[in-house]
Every structure is written in C-alpha cells, then in structure tokens.
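$ ./design --mode recover --in tokens.txt
reading tokens...
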C-alpha cells in the first residue's frame, strides 16, 4: 500500500514540474515577441561632447580717482610802505620841579564869553546917537531958508560925556551956507543922549563923535 501511494505522489509532482516549466517557457516567448514589436530607439554613432568653460576671475574694481582740489585764486598783496621813523627826541633826564608838575596837571575852565564885546557896545551906542539926531532932523524953519532954499552937507564933530550930555560942537566941513551950518550945530547940541554903557569906552570920561548932516531942496538926511 505504501509503495503504491508513493508512486502516485511522485507522478503528480513530476506533472506539476512539467507544467511549471511550460508556463515559464511560454512567458519567455511572449516577452520576446512583445520586445520585438516595441520601437527601438535610434542609435547615434556620434558621441556628445560636453565642455565646461570656467569663467576667468573678475578683476577687482579700479579705485575711484582722487578728488581734484578746487582752484583758489591768489592775489598778491603789496605790503604798505612803512611810515618813516620819527626823529628821536632828546630825553631830559632831569625831573621836573614839583611846581611845574602841579601847573601842568591843572587846567582851569574856560572863562565864559561875554554877551557883547566892547566894539559891539560902542557901535551900538553910536547908532543910538544917530537915531536920536535923525528923529529931530528937519529943514530949518526960518524965512531966510524958505527964501533961498540952500542945500549942502555939514560935517559936525561933538563930544559926549559918560552921562550922555553933549559938549563942544564944532563944524569940521561947512556946507557953504551959514544957515545950514548953524542949524546942524543946534541940532546936535540939543540932543538928549543915553548914558554910555559901563563896558563901552572904558577909561574915558568923554568920547568924540562925528556926523554928517545933509540938507537937500526936498528935505534933509544924515550920514555917519
């Protein structure tokens, strides 16, 4: 019994092996047939060369040019001529006396100017005498003068005291007419003149004046 079962077993195992081999052969044959049907890639006999070029190293950037300094205009200045040296002054080695130093250190204030100077006062007083004579001057009031109507100039000198009183009236230059000469002397001696100012004609007790009395046909006039 046992021998018969082993033979059957071996026969089934051989059959399975044969089937397996047949299946593998069929698969291999089908694979080749499919491979033959697929398009084959074209082959190129030229080889592709790949070249790699290395870029040269970049040169460092050039430094910027140095800045150009601005141009400055220069002007030549001529030196001013030196002033001439002053002449050396002699040095007095002797000290000044104490009195001189005291005088130099003191400067008195200036005296106030007078309101009117002496010539102005004297000229003003003479103008007052002339104004007094001119107020009283008129042609002679006499029948002889109206009859003859003389004309001319009489130059008269007279003295006035400090009180203003006239003295010693004299004719220096006659008009040629006694009527006019006498009238001019009477005119001057009859004046009431003001007193002299204290600062006018200083040191004089009296002062002489001269005036010219002019008589014309149409009237009379005075001249100093």
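writing sequence...
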């Amino acid at each position: 019994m046992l021998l018969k079962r082993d033979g059957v077993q071996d026969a089934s195992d051989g059959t399975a092996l044969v089937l397996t081999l047949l299946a593998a052969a069929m698969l291999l044959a089908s694979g080749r047939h499919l491979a033959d049907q697929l398009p084959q890639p074209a082959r190129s006999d030229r080889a592709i060369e790949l070249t790699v070029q290395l870029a040269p190293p970049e040169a460092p950037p050039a430094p910027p040019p140095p800045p150009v300094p601005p141009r400055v205009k220069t002007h030549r200045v001529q030196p001013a001529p030196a002033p001439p040296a002053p002449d050396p002054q002699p040095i007095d080695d002797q000290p000044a006396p104490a009195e001189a130093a005291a005088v130099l250190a003191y400067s008195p204030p200036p005296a106030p100017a007078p309101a009117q100077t002496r010539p102005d006062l004297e000229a003003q007083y003479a103008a007052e005498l002339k104004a007094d004579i001119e107020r009283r001057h008129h042609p002679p009031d006499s029948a002889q003068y109206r009859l003859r109507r003389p004309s001319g100039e009489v130059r008269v000198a007279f003295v006035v005291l400090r009180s203003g009183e006239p003295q010693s009236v004299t004719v220096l230059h006659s008009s040629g007419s006694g009527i006019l000469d006498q009238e001019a002397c009477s005119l001057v001696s009859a004046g009431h003149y003001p007193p002299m100012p204290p600062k006018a004609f200083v040191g004089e007790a009296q002062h002489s004046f001269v005036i010219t009395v002019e008589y014309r046909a149409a009237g009379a006039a005075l001249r100093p």
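exit 0
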